[in-house]
Amino acid sequence: MATTTRVYVARLAGLAVFDPNGDLVGRVRDAVARVTSQPPRVVGIVAEMPMRRRIFLPIGRVTSIDNESVMLNTGTLNLRRFEKRPGEMLVLEELLDRRVTIADRDKPATVLDVAMEPDRTGEWKLTRLAVREVTGRLSRRGQIHQVEWDEVQGLLTPVAEQGTESLLAVLEKMRPADLAHALQEMPDPRRNEVAKALDDERLADVIAELPEQDQVEIIALLDRERAADVLEEMDPDDAADLLAELPQVEQQVLLDLMEPDESASVRALMIYAEGTAGSVMTSEPVVLTPDATVAEALARVREPQVSPAVAAQVFVARAPMATPTGRYLGMVHFQRLLREPPAAMLGGIVDNDIDPLEPESTLADITRRMATYNLVAMPVVDAGDRLLGAVTVDDLLDHLLPEDWRERHG
């Protein structure tokens, strides 16, 4: 194998895996080791393919590993979903942040990374660890040591609690949907530890990508004040969907703990019947007045917190701008904004020849109309022509797909 002789597993995470033709197979998510031998023998890697299917790649299929990619040799890939067998261990999931003892120093430490390297026969084994001493002082971080596998105690014993700092560093660059899938693959105790360790904004993004049952379980883990903070970070429509899964008493408690301006938009969405435009719309589209310029509109859609579906168009309405707005006038698509002079006013280029949705419009009606006009979002207005929100294609798909489409074995 043309590769470096020692590879730290945490640095493998996220690397692209290519077949001999240079086609992307997926990305590394973990390494699999067999704990029946000491030190444990690495038997393969777990790669995540498009559509978030995780498969097992035997270590014998790997021809090279460098800082940017993992290369495979020829042969047929087994596309069966990966499932850990008895006697196997997922290195990153089960060892990172584990509390251990450095034997010769009799000092507690946590695992930061695990190295694997081939022996004389070519078998890859877990041989060394990077560990940080636990000092007991909040103001000082302990020394980092490189130690052999057999110089550490407590690596394979059951643990009541496992830290999250190093694993979070590995997961940091993952998209929310991929991180949500990674959480689903973890045992429930580990999933819960990682979820609780995420900051409010990141956790809100991840929860929105989980199946409803997992959303409810994670929110239930948090104290009520933090649960309310996470709900504030979620898009109002996602927060409303999650709250709808909770008992009514708990809904009211969490809504009361949220900031009034944050809870108001969520309460407004919860009044609509399930399966209607009102129940699936976002109440925070990009809204500007007709005297706003193209330059102002482009600045708004470039804001990082605006999702691609919401940024695809600007809705034009009379003041006030917060939903429900003044009278709805129409919308301007992103492509039209790119073709117009920066100083042009939105009122002069607004598209108003497509009738908006009513809050009671059904999902079937919304789907037909969005497909007919090739739209990624449609406005929702009330009887007084005030803009209430917009139904985006991503939220529409969430409600059209089978309920279990996010499930781990779906």
UniProtKB/TrEMBL annotation:
CDD domains: CBS_pair_Mg_transporter (cd04606). It holds the Pfam family CBS. Residues 350-407 form the CBS domain. Coiled coil: none annotated. SUPFAM superfamilies: CBS-domain pair (SSF54631), MgtE N-terminal domain-like (SSF158791), PRC-barrel domain (SSF50346). Keywords: CBS domain. PROSITE patterns: CBS (PS51371). The keyword GTP-binding does not apply. SMART domains: MgtE_N. PANTHER family: MAGNESIUM TRANSPORTER MGTE. This is Magnesium transporter MgtE N-terminal domain-containing protein. The lineage of its organism: Bacteria, Bacillati, Actinomycetota, Actinomycetes, Micromonosporales.
